[in-house]
Amino acid sequence: MEEAEIFRQLRGNIFQPLLPKFQEDPKLWHLREEAGHTPLHWAALSGDVPFTTAALQHLEVDIRADNLQTPLMWAVTRGRLQVAKLLMEAKADPYTKDSVGATPLILAVQHGQTSAMLLLFALCEHKALLAGVDVKGCSAVHWAAFKGELSALQLLDYFNADFSVTDNEKMSPLHRAAQGNQDGIMQFLLDRGVNASLVDRQDRTCIEVAQQLNRQKALSRLKRLLEPKPSDEEGSKVLRRRKAAEEAEALVKRAKRMALPSFWFSCVSVATFEYLMELQGPARLLLPTCATAFELGVPVVMVLFLIMQQTDPGKVPRRVKGSSAVEELFWGEGWV
Q1: Per the CB 3.0–4.6 Å rule, which of 52, 106, 138, 148 could disulfide with 182?
Q2: Is residue 40 packed enough to be buried (19+ CB in 10 Å), middle (13-18) or exposed (0-12)?
Q3: Residue 258 contacts by C-beta under 8 Å, 6 or more apart in sequence?
Q4: What region does 305 belong to: left with phi over 0, alpha with psi -120 to 50, or beta?
Q5: Per-domain residue ranges for the chain?
Q6: CA separation for the pair 152, 145 (Å, rounded)
Q7: Strands 226-228 and 239-241
Q8: Which fold has domain 1-132?
Q9: Could you confirm whether domain 136-241 is CATH 3.90.45.10?
Q10: How many angstroms separate the CA atoms of 109 and 266, rounded?
Q11: CA 146 – CA 185 distance, rounded (Å)
Q12: What is the pLDDT of residue 234?
Protein backbone atom coordinates (compact mmCIF):
# COMPACT_ATOMS: atom_id res chain seq x y z
CA MET A 1 0.00 0.00 0.00
CA GLU A 2 1.36 3.43 -0.96
CA GLU A 3 2.19 5.99 1.70
CA ALA A 4 -0.30 8.51 0.30
CA GLU A 5 -3.11 5.94 0.48
CA ILE A 6 -2.23 5.09 4.07
CA PHE A 7 -2.52 8.71 5.17
CA ARG A 8 -5.70 9.16 3.14
CA GLN A 9 -7.27 6.36 5.16
CA LEU A 10 -5.90 7.75 8.42
CA ARG A 11 -7.41 11.15 7.64
CA GLY A 12 -10.68 9.37 6.89
CA ASN A 13 -10.71 7.69 10.33
CA ILE A 14 -10.15 4.24 8.83
CA PHE A 15 -7.98 2.73 11.55
CA GLN A 16 -9.13 -0.81 12.29
CA PRO A 17 -8.43 -2.23 8.80
CA LEU A 18 -4.99 -0.59 8.88
CA LEU A 19 -3.94 -1.83 12.30
CA PRO A 20 -3.06 -5.41 11.19
CA LYS A 21 -0.97 -4.01 8.31
CA PHE A 22 0.98 -1.78 10.72
CA GLN A 23 1.53 -4.70 13.08
CA GLU A 24 2.83 -6.84 10.21
CA ASP A 25 5.17 -4.08 9.02
CA PRO A 26 6.38 -1.96 11.99
CA LYS A 27 8.20 0.42 9.62
CA LEU A 28 4.81 1.90 8.73
CA TRP A 29 4.57 3.48 12.18
CA HIS A 30 7.44 5.78 11.30
CA LEU A 31 5.86 7.21 8.15
CA ARG A 32 5.42 10.97 8.03
CA GLU A 33 3.37 13.27 5.88
CA GLU A 34 4.85 16.35 4.24
CA ALA A 35 4.00 18.47 7.31
CA GLY A 36 5.55 15.90 9.63
CA HIS A 37 2.30 14.36 10.85
CA THR A 38 2.58 10.77 12.04
CA PRO A 39 0.02 7.96 12.34
CA LEU A 40 -0.03 8.67 16.08
CA HIS A 41 -1.11 12.27 15.44
CA TRP A 42 -4.05 11.13 13.33
CA ALA A 43 -5.08 8.45 15.82
CA ALA A 44 -5.04 11.04 18.62
CA LEU A 45 -7.11 13.46 16.55
CA SER A 46 -9.71 10.79 15.83
CA GLY A 47 -9.74 9.37 19.34
CA ASP A 48 -8.94 5.80 18.29
CA VAL A 49 -7.74 4.12 21.48
CA PRO A 50 -6.58 0.71 20.08
CA PHE A 51 -4.54 2.33 17.29
CA THR A 52 -3.06 4.88 19.70
CA THR A 53 -2.12 2.13 22.16
CA ALA A 54 -0.36 0.18 19.42
CA ALA A 55 1.39 3.30 18.08
CA LEU A 56 2.83 4.11 21.50
CA GLN A 57 4.77 0.85 21.40
CA HIS A 58 6.74 2.16 18.42
CA LEU A 59 6.74 5.97 18.65
CA GLU A 60 7.67 8.54 21.27
CA VAL A 61 4.59 9.86 23.03
CA ASP A 62 5.65 13.46 22.33
CA ILE A 63 6.70 12.97 18.72
CA ARG A 64 6.36 16.32 16.97
CA ALA A 65 5.08 17.47 13.60
CA ASP A 66 6.87 20.25 11.72
CA ASN A 67 4.88 22.85 13.66
CA LEU A 68 6.06 21.18 16.90
CA GLN A 69 2.58 19.96 17.80
CA THR A 70 2.38 16.69 19.71
CA PRO A 71 -0.32 13.99 19.61
CA LEU A 72 -1.64 15.26 22.96
CA MET A 73 -2.23 18.67 21.38
CA TRP A 74 -4.20 17.08 18.57
CA ALA A 75 -6.27 15.05 21.02
CA VAL A 76 -7.33 18.05 23.12
CA THR A 77 -8.37 20.11 20.09
CA ARG A 78 -11.13 17.57 19.43
CA GLY A 79 -11.88 16.71 23.07
CA ARG A 80 -10.66 13.11 22.71
CA LEU A 81 -10.51 12.50 26.44
CA GLN A 82 -9.75 8.77 26.46
CA VAL A 83 -6.82 9.19 24.10
CA ALA A 84 -5.59 12.31 25.90
CA LYS A 85 -5.64 10.45 29.22
CA LEU A 86 -3.87 7.50 27.61
CA LEU A 87 -1.14 9.79 26.25
CA MET A 88 -0.68 11.52 29.60
CA GLU A 89 -0.45 8.18 31.37
CA ALA A 90 2.33 7.42 28.88
CA LYS A 91 4.11 10.59 30.16
CA ALA A 92 3.09 13.04 27.44
CA ASP A 93 4.23 16.55 28.38
CA PRO A 94 1.15 18.72 29.12
CA TYR A 95 3.26 21.90 29.36
CA THR A 96 5.04 21.68 26.01
CA LYS A 97 4.57 24.32 23.30
CA ASP A 98 4.16 24.29 19.54
CA SER A 99 5.85 26.62 17.04
CA VAL A 100 3.69 29.60 18.09
CA GLY A 101 3.96 28.87 21.80
CA ALA A 102 0.52 27.30 22.26
CA THR A 103 0.26 24.75 25.06
CA PRO A 104 -2.32 21.93 25.21
CA LEU A 105 -4.40 24.08 27.57
CA ILE A 106 -4.35 27.06 25.20
CA LEU A 107 -5.29 24.81 22.28
CA ALA A 108 -8.19 23.35 24.28
CA VAL A 109 -9.41 26.90 24.99
CA GLN A 110 -9.04 27.95 21.36
CA HIS A 111 -11.17 25.02 20.21
CA GLY A 112 -13.81 25.36 22.93
CA GLN A 113 -12.98 22.02 24.54
CA THR A 114 -13.86 22.62 28.19
CA SER A 115 -13.91 18.87 28.90
CA ALA A 116 -10.29 18.65 27.75
CA MET A 117 -9.47 21.61 29.98
CA LEU A 118 -10.97 19.75 32.94
CA LEU A 119 -8.90 16.68 32.15
CA LEU A 120 -5.70 18.74 32.06
CA PHE A 121 -6.52 20.39 35.38
CA ALA A 122 -7.37 17.00 36.89
CA LEU A 123 -4.04 15.44 35.94
CA CYS A 124 -1.60 18.36 35.99
CA GLU A 125 -0.19 20.97 38.35
CA HIS A 126 -2.48 23.98 38.07
CA LYS A 127 0.06 26.78 38.39
CA ALA A 128 2.29 25.27 35.74
CA LEU A 129 -0.66 24.88 33.36
CA LEU A 130 -1.79 28.47 33.86
CA ALA A 131 1.73 29.84 33.49
CA GLY A 132 1.92 28.87 29.82
CA VAL A 133 1.79 31.73 27.32
CA ASP A 134 2.29 31.79 23.56
CA VAL A 135 4.87 33.75 21.56
CA LYS A 136 2.76 36.92 21.92
CA GLY A 137 2.52 36.50 25.67
CA CYS A 138 -1.16 35.54 25.49
CA SER A 139 -2.35 33.26 28.27
CA ALA A 140 -5.29 30.89 28.31
CA VAL A 141 -7.35 33.74 29.79
CA HIS A 142 -6.49 36.01 26.84
CA TRP A 143 -7.52 33.33 24.36
CA ALA A 144 -10.75 32.51 26.20
CA ALA A 145 -11.61 36.22 26.14
CA PHE A 146 -10.74 36.57 22.44
CA LYS A 147 -12.84 33.53 21.55
CA GLY A 148 -15.72 34.52 23.83
CA GLU A 149 -15.59 31.20 25.69
CA LEU A 150 -17.50 31.97 28.89
CA SER A 151 -17.35 28.36 30.15
CA ALA A 152 -13.58 28.35 29.70
CA LEU A 153 -13.29 31.65 31.57
CA GLN A 154 -15.39 30.29 34.42
CA LEU A 155 -13.16 27.21 34.68
CA LEU A 156 -10.02 29.32 34.58
CA ASP A 157 -11.45 31.51 37.32
CA TYR A 158 -12.26 28.41 39.39
CA PHE A 159 -8.63 27.31 39.15
CA ASN A 160 -7.38 30.78 40.17
CA ALA A 161 -6.12 32.05 36.83
CA ASP A 162 -4.77 35.61 36.87
CA PHE A 163 -7.27 37.86 35.09
CA SER A 164 -5.08 40.95 35.54
CA VAL A 165 -2.32 39.58 33.29
CA THR A 166 -1.27 41.47 30.16
CA ASP A 167 0.44 40.09 27.05
CA ASN A 168 3.46 41.36 25.09
CA GLU A 169 1.29 44.11 23.57
CA LYS A 170 0.21 45.10 27.09
CA MET A 171 -3.30 43.98 26.22
CA SER A 172 -5.56 42.75 28.99
CA PRO A 173 -8.20 40.05 28.50
CA LEU A 174 -10.67 42.93 28.05
CA HIS A 175 -8.61 44.27 25.14
CA ARG A 176 -8.61 40.83 23.53
CA ALA A 177 -12.35 40.44 24.05
CA ALA A 178 -12.87 43.79 22.31
CA GLN A 179 -10.54 42.68 19.52
CA GLY A 180 -12.58 39.50 19.08
CA ASN A 181 -15.90 41.40 19.21
CA GLN A 182 -17.03 39.26 22.13
CA ASP A 183 -19.71 41.32 23.85
CA GLY A 184 -21.10 38.43 25.90
CA ILE A 185 -18.16 38.14 28.31
CA MET A 186 -17.43 41.80 29.09
CA GLN A 187 -19.50 41.75 32.28
CA PHE A 188 -17.76 38.60 33.50
CA LEU A 189 -14.29 40.06 32.92
CA LEU A 190 -15.17 43.26 34.75
CA ASP A 191 -16.64 41.24 37.62
CA ARG A 192 -13.31 39.41 37.87
CA GLY A 193 -11.46 42.67 38.37
CA VAL A 194 -9.98 43.28 34.91
CA ASN A 195 -8.88 46.93 34.85
CA ALA A 196 -10.89 48.69 32.15
CA SER A 197 -8.53 51.69 32.21
CA LEU A 198 -5.41 49.79 31.12
CA VAL A 199 -3.88 50.95 27.84
CA ASP A 200 -1.88 48.78 25.44
CA ARG A 201 1.43 49.60 23.75
CA GLN A 202 -0.44 51.83 21.32
CA ASP A 203 -1.97 53.74 24.25
CA ARG A 204 -5.46 52.36 23.57
CA THR A 205 -8.12 51.42 26.07
CA CYS A 206 -10.42 48.48 25.38
CA ILE A 207 -13.02 50.93 24.05
CA GLU A 208 -10.52 52.49 21.65
CA VAL A 209 -9.49 49.04 20.40
CA ALA A 210 -13.12 48.26 19.61
CA GLN A 211 -13.50 51.64 17.87
CA GLN A 212 -10.37 51.30 15.73
CA LEU A 213 -11.21 47.74 14.68
CA ASN A 214 -14.90 48.54 14.11
CA ARG A 215 -16.04 45.88 16.56
CA GLN A 216 -19.55 47.26 16.95
CA LYS A 217 -21.02 44.64 19.29
CA ALA A 218 -18.12 44.91 21.70
CA LEU A 219 -18.08 48.71 21.46
CA SER A 220 -21.78 49.02 22.20
CA ARG A 221 -21.48 46.69 25.18
CA LEU A 222 -18.44 48.47 26.61
CA LYS A 223 -20.10 51.87 26.31
CA ARG A 224 -23.12 50.55 28.21
CA LEU A 225 -20.91 49.17 30.97
CA LEU A 226 -18.21 51.86 31.23
CA GLU A 227 -17.94 55.63 31.38
CA PRO A 228 -15.02 58.09 31.69
CA LYS A 229 -14.15 58.88 35.28
CA PRO A 230 -14.21 62.64 35.98
CA SER A 231 -10.65 63.95 36.21
CA ASP A 232 -8.85 67.29 36.17
CA GLU A 233 -6.12 65.72 34.08
CA GLU A 234 -6.50 66.56 30.40
CA GLY A 235 -6.81 63.53 28.13
CA SER A 236 -7.39 61.15 31.03
CA LYS A 237 -8.41 57.65 29.93
CA VAL A 238 -9.55 56.37 33.29
CA LEU A 239 -12.79 54.41 32.96
CA ARG A 240 -15.25 53.28 35.59
CA ARG A 241 -18.33 51.10 35.59
CA ARG A 242 -21.67 52.78 35.09
CA LYS A 243 -23.92 52.38 38.11
CA ALA A 244 -26.95 52.57 35.85
CA ALA A 245 -25.57 49.68 33.81
CA GLU A 246 -25.21 47.51 36.89
CA GLU A 247 -28.75 48.36 37.96
CA ALA A 248 -30.03 47.58 34.46
CA GLU A 249 -28.24 44.22 34.48
CA ALA A 250 -29.87 43.37 37.81
CA LEU A 251 -33.27 44.42 36.47
CA VAL A 252 -32.85 42.24 33.38
CA LYS A 253 -31.90 39.23 35.51
CA ARG A 254 -34.92 39.79 37.74
CA ALA A 255 -37.19 40.10 34.70
CA LYS A 256 -35.88 36.79 33.35
CA ARG A 257 -36.52 35.09 36.68
CA MET A 258 -40.05 36.49 36.78
CA ALA A 259 -40.97 35.64 33.18
CA LEU A 260 -42.42 32.15 33.73
CA PRO A 261 -44.19 32.92 37.05
CA SER A 262 -45.74 36.03 35.49
CA PHE A 263 -46.92 34.03 32.49
CA TRP A 264 -48.50 31.40 34.75
CA PHE A 265 -50.19 34.04 36.91
CA SER A 266 -51.59 35.77 33.81
CA CYS A 267 -52.98 32.51 32.41
CA VAL A 268 -54.72 31.65 35.70
CA SER A 269 -56.13 35.18 35.95
CA VAL A 270 -57.54 35.07 32.41
CA ALA A 271 -59.03 31.60 32.98
CA THR A 272 -60.66 32.76 36.22
CA PHE A 273 -62.07 35.89 34.57
CA GLU A 274 -63.55 33.85 31.71
CA TYR A 275 -65.05 31.38 34.19
CA LEU A 276 -66.72 34.10 36.26
CA MET A 277 -68.04 36.00 33.25
CA GLU A 278 -69.28 33.15 31.04
CA LEU A 279 -68.90 29.66 32.45
CA GLN A 280 -69.89 29.79 36.11
CA GLY A 281 -73.63 29.33 35.56
CA PRO A 282 -73.47 26.44 33.08
CA ALA A 283 -70.66 24.78 35.05
CA ARG A 284 -72.65 24.79 38.31
CA LEU A 285 -75.62 23.37 36.45
CA LEU A 286 -73.84 20.64 34.48
CA LEU A 287 -70.75 19.86 36.61
CA PRO A 288 -71.40 21.12 40.13
CA THR A 289 -68.59 19.14 41.75
CA CYS A 290 -65.98 20.36 39.26
CA ALA A 291 -67.27 23.91 39.51
CA THR A 292 -67.00 23.86 43.30
CA ALA A 293 -63.49 22.37 43.15
CA PHE A 294 -62.41 25.05 40.68
CA GLU A 295 -63.91 27.91 42.70
CA LEU A 296 -62.26 26.72 45.91
CA GLY A 297 -59.02 25.54 44.36
CA VAL A 298 -58.09 28.63 42.36
CA PRO A 299 -57.97 31.02 45.36
CA VAL A 300 -55.98 28.48 47.37
CA VAL A 301 -53.48 28.02 44.53
CA MET A 302 -53.19 31.78 44.02
CA VAL A 303 -52.54 32.37 47.71
CA LEU A 304 -49.90 29.62 47.78
CA PHE A 305 -48.30 31.10 44.69
CA LEU A 306 -48.09 34.57 46.24
CA ILE A 307 -46.68 33.16 49.48
CA MET A 308 -43.99 31.23 47.62
CA GLN A 309 -43.26 34.21 45.40
CA GLN A 310 -42.73 36.57 48.33
CA THR A 311 -40.98 34.14 50.66
CA ASP A 312 -37.21 33.84 50.61
CA PRO A 313 -36.44 30.13 50.15
CA GLY A 314 -32.86 30.68 51.23
CA LYS A 315 -29.76 29.62 49.35
CA VAL A 316 -27.85 26.40 49.11
CA PRO A 317 -24.42 27.14 50.59
CA ARG A 318 -21.77 27.57 47.96
CA ARG A 319 -19.48 24.57 47.94
CA VAL A 320 -15.82 25.23 48.55
CA LYS A 321 -13.09 24.58 46.03
CA GLY A 322 -11.68 21.12 46.43
CA SER A 323 -15.08 19.69 47.34
CA SER A 324 -17.34 20.90 44.55
CA ALA A 325 -19.01 19.47 41.46
CA VAL A 326 -15.75 19.95 39.56
CA GLU A 327 -13.95 17.48 41.80
CA GLU A 328 -16.94 15.14 41.69
CA LEU A 329 -16.60 15.13 37.92
CA PHE A 330 -12.91 14.27 38.24
CA TRP A 331 -13.72 11.33 40.51
CA GLY A 332 -16.72 10.20 38.51
CA GLU A 333 -14.69 10.03 35.31
CA GLY A 334 -11.88 8.23 37.10
CA TRP A 335 -9.38 11.00 36.30
CA VAL A 336 -8.09 11.24 39.87
Answers
A1: 148
A2: buried
A3: none
A4: alpha
A5: 1-132, 136-241, 245-312
A6: 9
A7: antiparallel
A8: 1.25.40
A9: no
A10: 44
A11: 10
A12: 52
Which strand (E) or helix (H) includes residue 46?
A: helix 39-46
For the stretch 229-237, contacts whose Cβ atoms lie closer than 8 Å and that sit 24 or more positions apart, written own/partner, are 229/197, 237/197, 237/199, 237/205
Give the C-alpha distances (Å, rounded to integers) separating 103 from 140, 195, 219. 9, 26, 30
Number of Cβ within a 10 Å radius of residue 315: 6
What is the reported pTM?
Answer: 0.79
Residue type, 298: V
With contact defined as beta carbons under 8 Å apart, do 189 and 174 qualify? yes
Is the confidence at residue 73, as pLDDT, over 60?
A: yes
Q: What is the pLDDT of residue 143?
A: 98
Q: How far apart are CA 276 and CA 65, in angstroms?
A: 77
Instruction: Name the amino acid, one letter, at 32.
Output: R
Same fold? 1-132, 136-241: yes
Q: Which DSSP symbol is given to 108? A: H
309-315 average pLDDT score: 73
- Say how far apart CA 92 and CA 69 lie, in whole Å: 12
Q: How far is CA 303 from CA 31, 47, 193, 308, in A?
A: 75, 56, 43, 9
Q: Are 104 and 72 in contact (CB under 8 A)?
A: yes
Closest CA to 53 of 4, 108, 27, 15: 15
Encode pLDDT of 76-99 as tens digits: 999 999 999 999 999 999 999 999
Query: How many CB atoms sit inside 10 A of residue 193's CB?
Result: 8
The H or E element containing residue 194 is none
Q: Answer yes or no: is pLDDT of 1 > 90.
A: no
Rounded to an integer, what is the distance from CA 50 to the centroid of its chain? 30
pLDDT in tens, 171-183: 999 999 999 999 9
